[in-house]
Amino acid sequence: MIPDAECVKIVYEILSKLELGDFRIKVNDRRILDGMFAVCGVPDEKFRTACSSVDKLDKLPWEEVRKEMVSEKGLAPETADLIGEYVKNQGGQDLAEKLLKDPKLSKSEDACAGLNDMKLLFTYLQLFKATDKVVFDLSLARGLDYYTGVIYEAVLTPSGTESERRPWAWEVWLEGGATTGWWACSTLRERRCPVWV
User: Fold this and answer.
1) Domain Class II Histidinyl-tRNA synthetase (HisRS)-like catalytic core: where (predicted)?
2) Cβ distance 3 to 179 under 8 Å?
3) What is the pTM of this model?
4) Which of these, 93, 94, 110, 116, could form a disulfide with 35 (CB 3.0-4.6 Å)?
5) Cα–Cα distance between 188 and 168 in angstroms, integer?
6) d(CA 144, CA 142)
7) Strands 182-187 and 195-196
């Protein structure tokens, strides 16, 4: 988890020094998502499609995402409702500890492995003094074709009055994540520029 924490710390330091405005670094783990979808009753063949819906939560309200899951993607309403209970959660190390005691998630080996690593990630980030802008966000579901562990996304947070804000709630500046054996980080501006470390 040290390389994961170091990458998040580097993003934290860069965005702090650029002074672009307030930001958050959202973190999650592919294994937590896999475990969450499994315990909610998502069939294996619909994991990716469910994730693509959850990934829209930074742009759409839950009601619209739920409608897409049920009407367009064929998930059972009760499955979508269970997913909704989880993806509304945000926090830090305390959230990982709480979810490890969750009666459903605690039965998933994948989810427990991801949650234990999330706790460790926050322990290292505390040592790096980089936790005040980092949020464990269960709705973060990016790059599931290649990320296998921790995933993160740095976003500028909205500021000003409603009329002064950009038309989108959060502007994504970069995303990254752990894969088996290597790290990937790419910008999301005009073009994608992968950096392999």
Assistant:
1) 4-157
2) no
3) 0.82
4) 110
5) 15
6) 6
7) antiparallel
Computed over every residue of the chain, the mean pLDDT equals 83
Task: Determine the residue type at 43.
Answer: P
Nearest in space to 118 (alpha carbons), one of 95, 147, 84 = 95
**pLDDT tens column, 24-49:** 999 999 999 999 999 999 998 998 88
Length, in residues, of the chain: 197
Sequence-separated (6 or more) residues with CB below 8 Å from residue 68: 53, 56
Q: Where are the domains of the chain?
A: 2-196
Fold observed for domain 2-196? BirA Bifunctional Protein; domain 2 (3.30.930)
Q: Which of 124, 121, 190 is nearest to 150 (CA)?
A: 121
Q: What are the φ and ψ backbone dihedral angles of 161, each rounded to 5 degrees?
A: -75, 165
